[in-house]
Amino acid sequence: MFITATKKSPEELNAFLNGSRGPAGYFRDVSGSQLKITFDVFPWMVSDNMTYLRDKEPNYYFFNTQLGDWSVDKVIHAKDVLRSAVADFGVDLTSYDADNNKVLEGLVVVYEGKSGMLAGSNMSWTNNTYNSKFRRPNLDNVATLDDSTDPNFRAFKSQHILFRRYNNIPEQWSENYPGKLIHAGTWAHEIGHLLLGYRNYYYNPGDLGDYAFSAHSGDPNPFHPAALEKWLFVHWIEQKTIESSSAFQSGDVYVYSSNTFHVKISNISAPDYQVSFTLNKSTLY
Length: 285
Prior knowledge:
By secondary structure, the protein is an alpha+beta fold. It has helices spanning about 10-20, 25-30, 55-60, 75-90, 155, 185-195, 225-230; strands at about 60-65, 70, 110, 120-125, 130, 135, 140, 160-165, 165-170, 250-255, 260-265, 275-280.
């Protein structure tokens, strides 16, 4: 990490993440205490002092011909962060496996400065390959991060835990608010990718707009998940079926404003009629 005088201490970040108005409090509240997250925040990694980050900065950058600009090789960087956590901080990654499935629950790389200075705000993968035989993505193993020639080989070999998905999140909100932590909305949205497994639903034609936190981070306050998200992604609520003794044929859905949907329903044995209902934007705080 590249450290400046504006950086927050690990204690400050820990208080925010695990506090009532941080992402841990958010997921506890919106899930009805069905999802409880605890963040362990480790000290800042000063690149010059880390075994696997030292003198590596030039290796992380490459010219992205698709973007026409310089980019960061997030895969190499994330693996070096994990290596340094094990070798320099003595972190036992096997303790972050709550369901005992030998897969790391979650990793967040917080980098100093505003979004875009290193790797943006996103969920990323350390392994983009896919196993067609078993129909699942390939995962990396901490135990094989380095071979027997590495002086820390024994430390890695003892930790048989798989990993693949992780978050990149900047420390600060923007250059206009130096020293201000990035808001809970971004944290909730990105952690949702990591733990709940949803995609970004803000691309057409499936843009869900302001009605789902998979489609909007809810800056600065996180949006409340839609009922569909609570049921589909994590089963926090049960699916409810609306039943009627009459036969209906669904018609077109019209969006007349950003807040109101009008659904036209044609009844087989009765004249057409129109039902309208309003979806109000809501935030947790």
